[in-house]
Amino acid sequence: MAAVLTERVDAIAIVRLNRPERLNAINADIRRELPAALAPLNADPAVRAVVVSAAGERAFSAGQDLDEGAGYTIDDVNRWFSEMHAMYAAVRALDKPSVAALFGAVAGAGYQIALYCDLRVAHPEARIGQPEVKTGLGSILGTSLMDWHLPFGINAELSLLGDLISGERAWQLGLVNRLVPKERVLETALTLAQELGKRPPHAVRITKERMRELTQPQFDDILVAAKKYQRRAYESGEPQRVMRELLERMRKR
Length: 253
Known about the structure:
Layout: E1 4-9, E2 12-17, H1 28-43, E3 49-54, E4 59-61, H2 66-70, H3 77-92, E5 98-101, E6 105-107, H4 108-116, E7 119-122, E8 127-129, H5 141-146, H6 152-161, E9 165-166, H7 167-172, E10 178-179, H8 185-197, H9 201-236, H10 238-252
Parallel strand pairs: 2-3, 3-5, 4-6, 5-7, 6-8, 7-10
Antiparallel strand pairs: 1-2, 8-9
Helix pairs in contact: 1-3, 3-4, 3-9
């Protein structure tokens, strides 16, 4: 089964993370398939905008797949975070406007995918945030990315506590652009994408190029920092132990 699905609604492409049985947790399949799905859409002049969402009803994405992360060692860190960085780069590389349609849990690596989209639609009850410290990992990718979106104190709160905030609070903080009832999230994201798609495409493209240019040095540094600090995390043994404990507690529920 494909871990990422695509469909078209007129000139809008919908890209869905497709691991609903695992709350669309990010694993090697999604890291590989999401860039492969986005590249041809970016090259297709008939596609005017992209909506990124997910299958199921419970979660846009629960973040990193814990089964995968618990099985990794320090020798996997470089490859793992290179794949993660390449996945985010594919979202950043879109010349078409992108809108994330968020519902349920929007955590960790899934939250970061959403932040790399241009705009975000969510519902008040969504649970959004950066829980990496609760799994024994440093909040390196997320903290770096949130620096573009949030005041330092709010970034520190989300990064160090690792708690998820409501969709309503995310909207108040400016992380979410539109807040609607859950049943209207995808519809609203499509409508927003259609409006963006009506803008002159060359003007949109060069605006996005400039936005990438402004943040490219920081984006490149994120990969260096992720490898550096997550190697230290795995050297400590903490992520492996904490993730296994979390998985054990989840299986007992």
